[in-house]
């Protein structure tokens, strides 16, 4: 069975965005892009909430074609164009969307059906609201967190309304020179 891995930048105090969705505090550099790019390149399915998907759609399809495109822009743009995208949204529809499936209801059944299909990890990018929904349904199999050296004090938390403990097993950690620490966990489903 395929696994859903939540990929998220997070503040030391557990926020994934500022109070108004700000992400200007997130540290990314070539070292992080190269590291993340290796794992993402193996993925064949990207999972997004509507807001994150629309943000990605506004940038990535043409990012690699711009004159000032970085190596990361070129590589991620190519990956984005070929990866199968799944979007959790009650307001979007499947019309005119290439290689994209919209899930608007029966979330648990629809996600479990995708998890049963052949393929690699399903990477859930950002998307705090979608992440909260999937956590409530116990559908996330791992967390790939990039802890940024900042305390926001307020904002959008990664974990809200957790009904039962979620036990995690630490797979790897990595410290980046910019001060970000990667924590890679699997969810102990036992």
Layout of helices and strands, plus pairs?
Layout: E1 4-11, E2 15-17, H1 30-40, E3 45-49, H2 50-63, H3 71-82, E4 84-88, E5 100-103, H4 107-116, E6 122-125, H5 128-136, E7 142-148, E8 156-157, E9 168-175, E10 181-187
Parallel strand pairs: 1-6, 1-7, 3-4, 3-6, 4-5
Antiparallel strand pairs: 2-8, 7-10, 9-10
Helix pairs in contact: 1-3, 2-3
CATH architecture verdict: 3-Layer(aba) Sandwich
Rg, alpha carbons: 16 Å
> Approximately how much helix is present in the residues?
25-40%
Q: Show unreliable segments.
A: none
The multimeric state of the shown protein is single chain
The fold-level CATH name is: Dihydrofolate Reductase, subunit A
Protein name: Dihydrofolate reductase family protein
GO biological process, one term: riboflavin biosynthetic process
Pfam families: RibD_C
Organism: Solitalea agri
Describe this structure in words.
By secondary structure, the chain is of the alpha/beta class. It has a single domain (4-187), classed as 3-Layer(aba) Sandwich (Dihydrofolate Reductase, subunit A), CATH 3.40.430.10. It has 5 helices and 10 strands. The protein has helices at residues 30-40, 50-63, 71-82, 107-116, 128-136, and strands at residues 4-11, 15-17, 45-49, 84-88, 100-103, 122-125, 142-148, 156-157, 168-175, 181-187. The strands form 2 sheets. It has an 8-stranded mixed beta sheet, with helices on both faces. A two-stranded antiparallel ribbon has the order 2-8. Strand 9 (168-175) and strand 10 form a beta hairpin. Helix 1 (30-40) packs parallel to helix 3 (71-82) and helix 2 packs across helix 3 (71-82). The longest helix is centred in the first third of the chain and has 14 residues, at 50-63. The protein is globular, with a radius of gyration of 16 Å. The mean pLDDT is 92.
């Amino acid at each position: 069975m395929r696994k859903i891995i939540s990929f998220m930048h997070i503040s030391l105090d557990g926020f994934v965005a500022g109070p108004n969705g700000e992400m200007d505090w997130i540290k990314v550099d070539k070292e992080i892009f190269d590291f993340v790019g290796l794992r993402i390149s193996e993925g064949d399915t990207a999972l997004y909430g509507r807001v994150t998907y629309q943000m990605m759609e506004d940038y990535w399809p043409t990012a690699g074609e711009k004159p000032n495109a970085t190596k990361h822009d070129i590589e991620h743009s190519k990956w984005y164009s070929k990866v199968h995208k799944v979007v959790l949204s009650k307001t979007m529809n499947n019309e005119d969307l290439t290689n994209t499936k919209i899930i608007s209801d029966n979330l648990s059944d629809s996600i479990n059906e995708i998890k049963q299909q052949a393929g690699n990890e399903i990477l859930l990018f950002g998307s705090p609201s979608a992440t909260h929904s999937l956590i409530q349904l116990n559908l996330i199999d791992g967390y790939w967190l990039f802890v940024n050296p900042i305390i926001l004090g307020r904002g959008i938390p990664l974990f809200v309304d957790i009904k039962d403990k979620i036990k995690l097993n630490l797979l790897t950690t990595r410290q980046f020179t910019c001060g970000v620490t990667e924590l890679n966990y699997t969810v102990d489903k036992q």
